[in-house]
């Protein structure tokens, strides 16, 4: 068996956080329309339940991402890696800001745009993380 390391634990925690944050948004995108037709209260309860898991998951993603970045020498990775990292950080900020717009918004437009932009940005950040881990290493 391969011996576990602190790096593998950090990566696993990072991926767990991404799975909850992004995966949960995908699940909700499929479930909410059906539940909304049955009960507005059920929709709100579902959203609150997701938020109790999602925000700590995003904090876990940020914490483990900062931890991982602190363990590398960015100058040894080159300009493409640094540019990818910068775009990834922008997408992480956009996904978080969009989630705030979605959760605090009162109009259908704010809810829809916040949700759609937040999910797209989260998926983009996740993909750039894969690029950084496998191509830019």
Low-confidence stretches: none
The amount of helix comes to: over 70%
Strand tally: 0
CA radius of gyration is: 17 Å
What structural class do helix, strand and pairing data support? mainly alpha
**Termini, distance in Å?**
24 Å
- SSE string, helix = H, strand = E? HHHH
Number of helices: 4
Give the overall form. Answer: elongated
The largest pleated sheet is described as: none
Rounded average pLDDT: 94
Determine the strand fraction and express it as a percent band: under 5%
Determine the oligomeric state from the structure: single chain
Brief digest:
By secondary structure, the protein is mostly helical. The protein is built from 4 helices and no strands.
Descriptive overview:
With 137 residues, the chain is mostly helical. The chain is 85% helix and 0% strand. It has 4 helices and no strands. It has helices at residues 6-38, 40-70, 79-104, 108-134. It is elongated, with a radius of gyration of 17 Å. The model has no long low-confidence stretch (mean pLDDT 94).
